[in-house]
## 1
Amino acid sequence: MATGSFVSNAANTDISYRLKHVKYELWVHALLFHILLTFLHPSKITASPRTEAEAIVKWKNSLSPPLPPSLNSSWSLINLANLCNWDAIVCDNTNTTVSEINLSGANLTGTLTGLDFASLPNLTQLNLNGNNFGGSIPSSIGNVSKLTFLDLGLNLFEDILPYELGQLRELQYLSVNSNNLNGTIPYQLMNLPKVSYLDFGSNYFTSAPDWSKYSGMPSLTHLALDLNSFTAEFPRFILECQNLTYLDISQNQWNGTIPESLYTNLAKLEYLNLTNCGLQGKLSPNLSMLSNLKELRIGQLRELRYLDLSNNVLNSTIPSELGLCTNLTFLSLAMNRLTGPLPLSLANLAKISELGLSDNSISGQLPASLISNWTQLISLQVQNNKFTGTIPPQIGLLKKIKFLYLYNNLFSGSIPVEIGNLKEMIELDISQNQFSGQIPSTLWNLTNIQVMNLFFNELSGTIPVDIGNLTSLQIFDVNTNNLYGELPETITQLTVLRNFSVFTNNFTGSIPREFGKSNPALTHIYFSNNSFSGELPPDLCSDGNLVVLAVNNNSFSGPLPKSLRNCSSLTRVRLDDNHFTGNITDAFGVLPNLVFVSLSRNQLVGELSPEWGECVNLTRLDMGSNKLSGKVPSEISKLSQLRYLSLHSNEFTGNIPPEIGNLHQLYMFNLSSNHLSGDIPKSYGRLAQLNNLDLSNNNFGGNIPRDLGDCGRLLSLNLSHNNLSGEIPYELGNLFSLQIMLDLSSNSLSGALPQNLEKLASLEILNVSHNYLSGTIPQSFSSMLSLQSIDFSYNNLSGTIPTGGVFQTATAGAFVRNNGLCGEVKGLTCRKVSSPDKSGGVNKKVLLGVIIPVCCLFIGMIGVGILLCMRHAQKRLDEESKSIEKSDQSISTVWGRDGKFTFSDLLKATDNFNDKYCIGKGGFGSVYKAQLLTGEVVAVKRLNITDSDEIPAVNRQSFENEIKSLTGVRHRNIIKLYGFCSWRGQMFLVYDHVERGSLGKVLYGEEGKLKLSFGVVVLEIMMGKHPGELLSRLSSNRGLSSMEEAEMLLKDVLDQRLPPPTGQLAEAVVFTVTIALACTRVVPESRPIMRSVAQELSATTQAYLEEPFGMITIGKLTGFHK
């Protein structure tokens, strides 16, 4: 026991000793390791100007001479105080430490081994690009932790790239291109989080044994690996650099194919260079997914047969390297932004069969050297570019070509006759160029051709009968050229023709009658803007395939083709500006696909059928300037897509449908120059899209709907020449978009001008003339700066005319025939109240003080005598007036709405028509001047009729109806007629009083000497001016020659301010002018007597127009002899 216990204690003592010894050894080892590390780790050098300067000077001294003189003198310790001003040296913001060294292009020779990077701890940029530095890149450069920019490119550095560069965590730019570096690119560089630019090009780098160590760099946008010795497959780490915009892997020996994920992962790529990179296979169609790509280089791909780079954003010139792809059969670069001419190297593409370069900005000519080598071409598409010059005759060598598209370029000259050699041609489109001359006769030998588009050129000549040879022709379009002559009958042989377009040329003659019937496939016909005549072929839509028929602006006549009635395929019809006649009522049936129809400016009659309401897709309905009659059918309101509705210048009657207010897409609405009546529907205020509303020259009555103020998009509103009454709605001032015009003239509107109209800041024309408006013209109207034309004439306006704006240049004609309206306008100057003379002295005051009382006494005495005399006369007059008032049943009166006085007032004002108030006498009666108690002055004409009771009751009533109508006439050259009275067997006409003598002098001054016969007055009204010049020409001794008569058109003689008359109105105008001219003949015996004139007028005779109104001459109207 004792022994065991001893052994145990000894063992414990030994273990304790050993543990203490181990602890001591560990402590010693740690101390030695720390000391070792202290010696091994380089001492940290504190940056100071001297330390940095010494390191720089030491490196300079290691470089091979000669050094640049500025560098040699600048880099010196003697110049230490100016370190921050040394050549190629830049200090930081504190100006105490070196932050940049830029020696790019300095042509220095040496190495970097002599540069102590540890002495430059604050260096952020080092640029040695473009020198002759050699040797290895020292690993110590990895200790410059603040470096952000390092460019060692274009030098002679060799050996490997030090992996210590991966320690530069702040680095953003690294370029070592164009050196002699070899080995692999260190994978440690993948750890640089901020680097965006890496250029390893033009070295001898090789592929890494294991690319899996390389990871994506999220900040990288520029990566260049070109001109190295890479041999492996495409590096996968590149696909993880998803912000790349520039990738160049050209001039290597990669193997395998381009991964498809390149097109999806690198969607931001703008530059991709695959030239001579070694990758195989086809370029994927997914290349189009690189939508930001601006430049693509593919280099010498000699085995490439199919290349489609269409619909990208390539914005360079066509790379000449494409000419090295000699096996190409398909090349499409269409729909990019390519510029410049075609490279001549493309002549090497002798196997090319399909070439598409369309929709770019390629310029220059189409060289003959290229065309002559492309003899295998089946399709050549260079449309929508900027090619110029002529088409080379070598085009005739393309014997296999089927599709030739040269349209929308700047080609000029004549069409080569050699194109006629291309017998396989199916589609030829050379439209929208500047080709001139005649269409080559060889083109009519292309018997396989299906499409021939020659439109929008400067071609001339005719279309020969040989066009009938093109039996496969489906589309023929020669619109907008200078072609002329008649269409040959042989166009009826084109049995598969679908589209025939010859509009905007100089064609004449008629259309072959069998056209359409022999061409059952026709869908589109365009004859517009020519001089065609005769009738349209009757069977244009015999097979129900016609979609578009446009024959507008020709001289076609006769009825509309019956085949149109049930042509349900029609979507667009233009027959306007011709001479079509006949009844339209049944010309069109239900055409459910019709979108656009225009029949305006023809001579069509009949009524609008309710079936038009079934054309539910109609957006435009234009039938203006015809002779249509009846009512506007309410079924039009079913056309919910309608945007344009014009039925102007017809003979429509009755009310207009209020349901039209439901056409919410309507922007043009014109019903002017008809015979429509009733109120303007309030529902039209719901036409929120309306731009133009024209209801002028009708018989609309009632008030202007206030709801029109809700048509916020109106540009033009014309309600003139109607019978509208009431006030101008204040709400019209809310039409802020109103720009073209606001015309409310020639109505019966009353009340004041709404000041709210001042808000129409864009309005250019304002016309409220010929109404009964009162009050003043608001001064704020002068702020309407867009106004170019105003007319306030013929109203009851008063006060001062505004100044400023359009009012400064307006003439008196814009304000005439108002009451008391005056201002700074010639002829309307306001009267000035003269001020009393203040220059008189005391003597004048005394003299006036004596004279005035004496005069007043004398006048007072005379006044008493006059009053005594007048008392008796007044008593007699009052008795007379009372007698008249008591016998109202014996007085027959017709007063206009302006007649605010009674016949009794006239008797009082003229002292029972005393001779002292007589101002003129004639063979038909006497005229009296009557100044009423209101101050108004009128002229009363007492007619010399023995007994008005002798006038038959029927005639008398007719006469009074005519007088009632005349009281409503308002014309600037007609004296206003207030009304008519018949009393005690006498007749009285009451006119507005005019000073200055005769009517002739008032109207014409000295020209008034011309006798005012019935004919003169009528011509004055019709012409809008004095007819003296016209009558002098007609009545001169020499007379008018037949040639002059032929040249003087009636339409040029009439008042140009009025719209040209149409229909029955035109016939009435011709008839009235004919009679007026007869009444102004020089020889009185040759004039018709008034009884004959009255009989003609009362018989409502009209002149049948054998020719269009615009062609009628004055000479043809001078033969009236009744």
## 2
Amino acid sequence: MALDGMMPSQLRDFSDVLGRNVARQFSNYWELDRFSAEEFRQFWSCFLSWSNLPRSGDEATVCVGDAAETAVFFPDLRLNYAECLLQGPAGAPVLTACHGIGLAATERLTRGELRSRVARLAAALRRLGVAPGDRVAAVARNNAEMIVVALAAAAVGAVLANCTPDMGSVALRARLAPLAPRVVFANLEPMPWDRGQPLAERVVELLAALPSVAAVIALDAGDLAAPRAVPLHHLRRLVRAGAEEWHAWPHLPFNHPLVVLFSSGTTGQPKCILHGAGGTLIEHLKEHRLHCDLRPGDRMFFQTSCGWMMWNWQLSALASGAEILVYDGPLESPALFWQLVAAHGVTVFGTNPAYLQHCEAAGLTPGRDHDLHQLRLVLSTGSPLRPRQFAWVAEAVKPLPLHSISGGTDVIGCFVLGHPSLPVHAGESPCRSLGLDIRALPRPEAATDRQGTAQQETAQQETARQGELICANPFPSRPLGFFGETDGRRFHESYFAANPGVWTHGDLVEHTPRGGWTVLGRSDSVLKIRGIRVGPAEIYAILESFEDIAEAMAVAQEAEEEPGGQRLVLLVVLRPGRRLDPDLARRIRRALGQRGASHLVPGRILAVDALPLTQSGKRSEAAARDAVNGRAARNRDALRNPECLASITASIGAGPRCRDTSQGTGPHGAEADPMAARLTALCESILDLPELGPADDLLELGADSLRMLSLLLAVEREFGQRLSVTALFSAPTIDGLLAQLRGRSPAAPGVVAKAAGAPRIRPVTPADLEPLARLLAAGFGESGIGPAQWRHLFGPPWPDDGGSWGWLLTVDEAIVGVLGTVRARHPLRGDAPLCNLSSWYVHPDYRGWGSALLVAALGEADATWTSFTPSSLSLQALAALDFRRLDTARIFLPPLAHAETLAAPGLRIDCAPATVRGLLDPAERQVFDDHAPFDCLQMVARDATERAYLVLKRRRDPLPGGLRRLPLRVAYSELLYCSAPALLARHLERIKLAVLARQRTLGLVVDARLWATPPRGRRLSSHAMFRSARLGAEAVDKLYSELVLLPV
């Protein structure tokens, strides 16, 4: 009963077993997927049996209850998480641990050696009084010792909570104090790459807030170096002392708590999310064996710290018989992780989009520079992968599957991920996780029969849909709850209040027609910076000690050039008489980095007069986020002080305050030291930090390792000298960089510009259509427009004078930029050409050439030029070239909002194409014929005095403005042309209802400029612009444009 076309894999083997057990044959993967979600009890029962985990008790009861919020899996089953991970041949390799700078310090363990260490530490924990259910905490580096700790804690039934050593004391206390841990494990020895307050000092401060601690266990040879009320033990002595006292792995209930993971702290203290051992284990085992085909002989390396859920996810890979590799040290070069992969024969490498983006920017070619022949799979998580990153991996690494996996700390697993046989499409995760009914709300009713008789429509044939990511059925890795919460209120509000009965995750996703999934970003207020969730409440807690600051708000600004696509912006309201000078900005950044973590350090700090408040006095992060991103506030009407948004937008638009080095005012004096001035300006620009001093620690001010490496590459290009990464991290200051520049020889050949050839601009030709469509599909990946649709823009859909379809920016024949022009002769507007600027995209490496493309395109003085979808970045360029605003607003008109116009008598509406065409004059007939192939609704409305010809386009997009709060694509009708606006105004409701019924939409969108007094409706901002020597704004319509050809 193997699935048709599936290559040999554990998933195929399991599908055979499942098919036999349920007496059903799965002809394709989507049938198996649907069955696993609908009949999840049969799926999980069969998987547990097939997995062959050591266990005891009764597994007949798979799940009690059908509600995702309260269901309980395997209530009568017992197992031991550590035993399940450590079973296997004693001599099999299980762990490789790499330490410090370089690849030399490596420790390797077999399963037998790891079992012995875990058993000895478990026995020691029992001697220290640790019992099942007790909490143990760790402030630990990503090393072999932490693996032993995690498994020993699980062996005795203790609940483990991990924190990373880069966290400040405030962040550590916020997470660990509520748990009242009995034992604290900690690394105490300093390392060269540590920043800020010594780790041992932070541990001492933490212990002062943990009166429950009975013992501290050092994971290295370090000491607390301070008076202490509890004994200090060292792990190696505990593990080596005496004979093993461990005779059997005690089996604990399936839902016995295993770990506490922490939320981001968005609305207060971080939530302590309690996960069970059995649910975590079988979810991970399913993801590893079925979706990743992980098995004995594989070696997995995931780029993670032990404070992230992916550390737990990688640890569970031991249950599949695989070996894991951990790395403790800095990212000393962009190639480091590829070197680790090659040196240790890694078969499955886990990373994140920010790292892949950095490798691409550095010009790395890992597949050519390293031996990656054993690498078979790359996994990426933390933030959405951009389509071009799939192409880079295929070209620069090797042609292998790149699986974008996404889930979260909340579920300690994945909702969407990979598949051993399904094709990988750029920008998509191939499938949802088996057994989980993942959906995008709103979702049409599934066309399947619960008895198992599916309709003809399969997952591949469904239309793409966007919505809120939910899980509609019970799943084993749902948290047990929040630690310490007795009534479940916060747990319910966090995951089940928004959509009762189903898990709501807080992500916006798109389910594609191929069955894949694209994660579009967060839908709640949690920030995601550099792929890491950031809780604003943690930032606010640290800033409370600043007397200069009255209020603060942290929001995310969209920034394509940033890893992860966003930067953290901190808005501060200062107390009277205070100002945001460079010294205060440095103190803020330093405090957030030292007492919190590097991802809490803002990219921009802005002083504002006030923060937006709702009518009830609550702060509105959503309104502030819209303001810093140049969007109209979605909840402006609900604000008590909407006037503050304009000042926020103005502040963010002013840009970072960098000094004018031409006046000799640099920190070293531009006239006295031109190199220092150039270097300072470059650092301020790359790091987006204003007024840097020569001795400012760039790491403390928020420049993480990826930013510093970006700076390093920029300095090498600017000055033509190679620099030492180790020296840079040792002295991360402008003075340190200057010392390197003045003490090293010129770079060896190879430090070259980003492309061998100079950029060149030329017209689009027919031969360019395929690569051009692919470039636009990748560049505008979030639009959901595929290559086939982009091709419509670069052909002659309408008669014109044979001019160019657009202009290309090329480097060595590779297309790196495009500005498309949709050309036509408008029968209603005379003989001069109409040119619509349709698609303006330039690869980030060549953004400076965008204006050159625009100048090349605007060569015809007598043409009417339009731009209906300009980005905020292109508005200034268009204005500089004499474009004028065409629309100040559009209006969304819902049904029955203009019922008073129904009283107007004598209206007749015709929609039949032959009838409509017969009622038009010759010029209008030409318009009708030109637009008939493009799915436009063309209609004629007549009353006793006038006739109106209307052309409309159905769209299914997120509406701009206030309606964007709806987490769905809304179907609406857009009016492209109306020959008689006065008639439309007289009979607005009747015509509107006819359009909505015909196109099955929820509202009509019209341009406000059609009437001197626009009708009632929700005003939506519009940035459309035009330039014409012949036509005024009133004569410019939206026919013969990209709005006809594309679903924009």
